Every structure is written in structure tokens, then in C-alpha cells.
Amino acid sequence: VTVSEIGEFGLLERIFPRLPVSRATLVGPGDDAALVAIRGGRVVATTDMLVEGRHFRLDWSSARDIGRKAAAQNLADVAAMGGVGVALLVALALPAEVDVSWVEELYDGFHDECEPVGAGVVGGDLVRSENGITISVTALGSMRGREAVTRAGARPGDVVAVAGRIGWSAAGLAVLSRGFRTPRALVDAHRFPQVPYAAGPLAADLGATAMCDISDGLVADLRRLALASGVSIEITTETLEVTPQMRDAAQALGVDPVRWLLDGGEDHALLATFPAGVELPEPWRTIGRVVRGRGVYVNGSPSEDAGFDHFR
Ligand SMILES: [Mg+2]
Q1: Residue 20: which pLDDT band, with cuts at 50, 70 and 90?
Q2: Taking all residues of the chain, what is their mean pLDDT, rounded to a whole number?
Q3: 73: CA distance to ligand 1 center in Å?
Q4: Residue 154: partners with Cβ closer than 8 Å, 6 or more residues away
Q5: Per residue in 116-128, pLDDT tens?
Q6: Alpha helix locations (H) across the chain?
Q7: How much is the pLDDT for 312?
Q8: How confident is residue 18, by pLDDT bands cut at 50, 70 and 90?
Q9: If you measure from the C-alpha of residue 81 to the centroid of ligand 1, how many angstroms do you get, rounded to a whole number?
């Protein structure tokens, strides 16, 4: 059955029962707008779009994977402020010939990712597209009384730490790009990330001075944080983990796995700075420090230097 065969209302009837429901949902889908209860009075808001062919491929990812990923990248941005995801709005542009089951599975993916966080899908939009599938997600989150942690607060003397996987998604993408489907753990990591959501509010409680999620790559996001804070950041690669599977895959593909750690995005790990002396519990681990100056240094070399290559 295709989307055009059952029409918008038929499709909505299939979607509504699959949506994750949160206790914060006072008025859910079906009215003019949703009504969401936000504790503490401060709302974190963020939006992200996924475009077929650019952000996902239908031959590499199932609808369920794509739903999970779309939810995760938004919920990760909420966590990166120190917040907790409460509600998602999902707007979908679909070609008429898409299978209804594909759409159902997409929302099952939203359900999978939102449920453990406690977030609901409270509304959205459906439109017909002539040009592939586009998924636009807006997330609302609560600070639950915490102060938001921006990118701009890192100070010289702070330590730099990460929580979550780094380089896994990039390794999975490299594997898929060469036509392989294994190692499974890496391929799965590319299909949807495993975001350490609780590490965001935890970092805020620990007094994090700056935070962001790693969506474009460790070095790229370190640069943004350093720029926003007006500081320089030094990291060493020996503190980053190349897993045995990454090492094997890199060897098979003839590439350097450290590249995945430094440049790979989409794992949505969290990156934060903390005042020196703060004892960091799991899953936070220290990878470097904040100093005066500007730019990012990896193993002592400016990250944009060509000479940087020999550290790989
Ligand atoms: Mg982000």
C-alpha cells in the first residue's frame, strides 16, 4: 500500500498510535497545536533536517534506523545544552509512491529513540514531495531548573572531556561506502547513533563551563567550541580509543583509524569543558585541556596543519 492510496488522513491514522507519548504531553497530535508541560520554565529548542541522498540512503538504512537517527540528532542537541528532551515535532515530505509500511517503521524508530529519554512526538506535518523524502524534526527540552551550558564558557585551565562513541559512525560509513556490510557494530553505529543523553545534564550538574555534541567531527566541533569561548584547546590522540573492530576495518580498507576519531561526525558524543580538579565520573573521560590562544592542537600540532598528517 502506498501513501497516495490511503491519503493523508489514512496515513495519520496509521501514524498516531505509533507515536511515543510523554507525561509532558497535555495536548498531543490532532489539534491546531500541541501543549507541552515544561518543568522549570526554560525551554531548549532545536531543529534539524534530514534529506534523502544527503543525510540518509534508503539502501543503507531502514526506515526505523532513519527515524532513530532523526530523533537522536535532535535529542543530542538538547542534551548538549544540559537539557532533557521532552517533545518532538516531525514534519515529513514524502513522494506519493512511498510504502505506508516505510512511514510506519520511520515512526517506530522515533518511538525507539524517544521512549528511554521520556520524550513524546506531539505533532508535525505531512506534505507530498516530488523529490525524495525530507524529514524535519524540532525538539523541545527542559532544563529542569539547571543553567544551560553553552559553547562559550570554556576558560584557560579547564579540562576537555568527551562522553560517548567517537569515530564509530565514520568507520561504519567507510565500510558501507566500500560495499561491505560488516563489522556489524560499526555499520550499526552509522545507521543510528548511541547518544549518552544522561551525560548532558550530568555535565551541567558537575559545573561544565561549555558543551556541544559532536555532529561534524571531534576536531571541527572542538574548533567551534574554542572559537565561541575565545580559547585554544589541546588534545592528544592517545586518550581516544581505536576499538579492535575499527583497527581491523581500517586495516582492511587501508586507511588510518585515527582519521575517523578526529574527523568523523554523526556519533553525537558530547564534548564539554570542566574546571580543573572536578572529578569526572563515567561516561566522561578527559582528552585534553583549554589554554590561552586560539585554534585546536592535536598532539602539539595545529589541527589544520598539513604536517598534522604524520600524527595519524
Ligand atoms: Mg549540536
Answers
A1: very high
A2: 94
A3: 8
A4: 160, 209, 210, 225, 226, 229, 231, 233, 273, 290
A5: 999 999 999 999 9
A6: 3-15, 63-79, 100-117, 168-177, 184-191, 199-205, 218-229, 244-253, 257-263
A7: 43
A8: very high
A9: 9
Q: If you measure from the C-alpha of residue 278 to the centroid of ligand 1, how many angstroms do you get, rounded to a whole number?
A: 24
Quote the ligand 1 centre to 288 CA distance (angstroms): 20
Q: How far apart are CA 310 and CA 312, in angstroms?
A: 5
Tell me how far the alpha carbon of residue 136 lies from the centroid of ligand 1, in angstroms. 15
Helix and strand counts by DSSP (H, E) for the chain: 9, 13
What is the CA(11)–ligand 1 centre distance, in A? 31
* Alpha carbon distance 259, 146 (integer Å): 36
Residue type, 83: G
Q: Which of 54-63, 103-112, 129-138 is the least confident region?
A: 54-63
Q: How big is the CA angle at 157 (ends 274 and 294), to the nearest 5 degrees? A: 100
Ligand 1 centroid to 147 CA: how many Å? Answer: 17
Query: 74 C-alpha to center of ligand 1: Å?
Result: 8
Residue 309 bridge partners (DSSP): none
